[in-house]
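Entry 0007
Protein: CoA-binding protein
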Amino acid sequence: MSGTTTARTWQGPSAPERLAILRSTKSIAIVGASDNPSRASYFVATYLLSSSPYDVYFVNPRATTILGRPVYKSLADLPVVPDLVDVFRRHDDLPGVAQEAVDVGAKTLWLQLGSWNEEAAGVAEAAGLKVVMDRCVKIEHARFHGGLHLAGFDTGVISSRRAPA
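Output (structure tokens):
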């Protein structure tokens, strides 16, 4: 978010509220999903498919398959109404994606780590959607289900201190 001077005035859901969102979610649509393994959306998709209970759908108008699964051109093209729309798109695209999430009847708009757009939040909240911004679904899911190592692995350690060598 370097270069921006806009103050953050929107208040996001608390940790217990985010946990409730994830617990009530059955399906996730990843908008801006990529078939490039170096992209964050690919890493999140891999995690969600292998380590979460969610039905995962990919949205990208230029891709046809990601991780062996079909890719849809838009949220409106999905075979289901996603509970949660996880967005990996440029800042200026976010209000439009929020409107698409509203139009298809999603319950939650989730803007990934580094994404903050109060206009998009306003569009979604005005239509009754829950909104999470500047947080990663993968990190949040892992946080609530067993602890995280810096690399995203469960350490089994519940402490901020390193174990002695």
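Curator remark: The chain has five helices and seven strands. The chain has one domain: 15-144.
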